[in-house]
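Predict both folds.
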Amino acid sequence: MRAPRKANWERIYATVRKIPHGRVATYGQVARLTGQCTARMVGYAMAGLEGDTDVPWHRVINAKGEISPRAGLGAEHQRQRLLEEGVRFNEQGRIDFGRYGLFPVSRSDAARQL
């Protein structure tokens, strides 16, 4: 990993570590809280994490309130970890931002992140 990328990813990881147990944030929210990065960069940083980490990557979801697809069993593992924290999904597999979000996401905010 290049030094500038590593520094950016470390800033992203520091932000994600602040998401409380039982709460979620979108890739875009993490990007805005971190500053000087994009939702896509947050996604790359989450994908770049290795096995045993203290970064609660499972608390980062997409703007639709869904778990983004991952290779292998990653999405199911993320779902299980969120369920263990008390986060619930509706019939469509979405999380209610009003109940579990770090802060609410408006429809216009969510649309900008898509």
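Second protein follows, with its predicted structure tokens after the sequence.
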Amino acid sequence: MADRFDVIVVGAGSAGCALAARLSEDSRRRVLLIEAGGNDRDPAIHIPAGIVRLIGNPKVDWAHLAQPDASRDGKVDLWPAGKVLGGSSSINGMLFVRGARADFDGWAAAGNRGWGFADLLPYFRRMENSPVGGQWRGGLGPLDVGPLRTTHPLGEAFVAAAVEAGLPANPDYNGETQEGASAPQVTQRNGARMSAARAYLGPAARRTNLAIVTNAEVQRVVIKDGRATGVVYRRGNTETLAEAGEIILSAGALATPKLLMLSGIGPGGELAQHGIPVLHDAPGVGANLGEHPNANLSWDVGQHTYNMDARGPRMALALARWVINRRGPATSPYPHAVAFFRSSPDVPTPDIQLMFGPFAFAFSPDGVVPYRKPAVTVVAALNYPRARGRLTLRSADPRDRPVIDHQLLGDPHDIERLTSACRFVRTIMAQPPISSALTGERLPGLPCESDADWAAHLRATTFLGYHPVGTCAMGPEGVVDDKLRVRGVAGLRVADASIIPAPISGNTNAAAIMIGEKAADLVAAGS
């Protein structure tokens, strides 16, 4: 006998936690939330600086490996995705960025009714507990959003230098306008990470109408006569059928398209090659994979930076300070300053995001590796890249990882925009508020002036923003409609970052949570 629910949510990530918690507010509605990962009790999740122990850690991160990237000399990227309650909100950098007003107005203009900025602002406000106040911000939501509890003086110096270089000072990039240089806003409470699980499932977990199953991997969606009726999930060696009137996939931009394809929804030719019966031929499933390319520039400095606290006695001292009063370097995510600007006067909205950190790092197949000398880093992210990739199945076996094929610098336009951004970063770092602290340029370091020089640097050092979107895109011709319903199958929706049509201006965690909030209202309204 199958377990029976009103709604099944697959994936307890940023969107899934919000969605399941909101749906279960109605005590008459039985909700099942299924998560492939385990609980979120690992202390590294809650200590913000613990991110260096999370990315690439198979206990909490799917740690997908992509195909070699021909646009970057065959580099094989790690594509993190949270495998734990809270999903990627439990392993991310905690920077809270809604996105630009123009992003969401663009969704509406493309035919997605109810997805313009004015439509979505109530959800952004409903989800957050921010001290900023005013008409743009929320103060009563479950997700704490606020300033860093411990700041590094070079963060303020970077903002001052950016203003001297010509950017406006912006007190709130999540407010009326995004453009300018700002202090960061992070998802923390009293110096500890505020994941979607902590924000939403903490208050909801005791509800008798909400069942949360962890360490359970969904194998497929059960579809009968064109309607989704349930899911089959595996826990250990046991397979279980759970049924519901509504199935919602919130497994993320990498796992949701995989689940759809395993269930017979996807590009018909590819499914047939793997022996999967085609229930609905949907070429857009797994296509349109967008990511933010991040350029990396860093400088040696003559004062203490936080990467010096990442080992030995200093690390022990930083952890002790965090345990005692939730302050100090261990409260630090990556950015201590941010800036949004236009790479060219003809760009209508900021297409570059800068993130300044009082430490330097490198990436290895095992994750993030701190630099051993005092240094600072500026990451320049391209908000609207043209390059797109694709996610496909490796086989019909749910245990096999998907094939991720993405050329991060595959479009020359993206290299041009990043080159412009990097040159402006050098202009900022030459301004007196911060230049006096620098002792030398570490990256690029070597002479880097011509377009060809910058292109070579970018191919060697550009890395992922860890913001995959678009693989189940919403739109009039998309995988899902503007009610998040999967076309061609009744009773099935998608609610996560995979529905975002194209990369947005900023980190995607806030938008993913907003999608979960809105999806709950769509389900409750029966639309």
